[in-house]
Amino acid sequence: MQVDNFNFLLQQAQTVRENAYVPYSQFAVGAAIQTDSGTVFTGCNVENASYGLTNCAERSAVFRMIASGERKIRAIAVIADAPRPIAPCGACRQVLSEFGSENTIVLLANVAGERLQTTLGELLPYAFVKEDLNG
C-alpha cells in the first residue's frame, strides 16, 4: 500500500492535535487519515464532563472522512505527548478496521519524534468485520 508522504501526514496530525479539547485528561491526541483517493482528513480528541461521551482523535478523523463521502483508509498517523509512540485504543482499532484493511498502514508517534510503523492487522488481529455477519 502506497502512502504519499508520511512526514506530511504526521505533520497534519500534529497540527490538529493543538485543537484538542482535553480539559480533564490534558492528553491531546491528533490523527490524520489518508484515503485511497489521497485526501487527508484530520481529527483530535474531544472530551466531555460525561467521560463516556468523549471522542478519540482517530474516530473524529474517520467521521470527517465518512461525512465527506470517502470510505477507504489507506493510512493513518496518530501522535500525542507520550513516553512512547501512541497507539489507538481498542474502540478506535475496531472503527478503523471497518474502513481499512489488515494492510492499512498505521504510523504511531510521539511529540519527541519517536515513530513506529505498523499495520492495522498487527494492531487488531482477527478483527470483527462485516463479512463475519454473513454467518
From TrEMBL:
One of its GO terms (cellular component) is cytosol. Residues 4-131 form the CMP/dCMP-type deaminase domain. The active site is at E58 (proton donor). GO terms for molecular function: cytidine deaminase activity; identical protein binding; zinc ion binding. Its EC number is 3.5.4.5. Substrate binds at N45, V46, E47, N48, A49, S50, Y51. It catalyses: 2'-deoxycytidine + H2O + H(+) = 2'-deoxyuridine + NH4(+); cytidine + H2O + H(+) = uridine + NH4(+). Its cofactor is Zn(2+). This enzyme scavenges exogenous and endogenous cytidine and 2'-deoxycytidine for UMP synthesis. This is Cytidine deaminase. It comes from Sulfoacidibacillus thermotolerans.
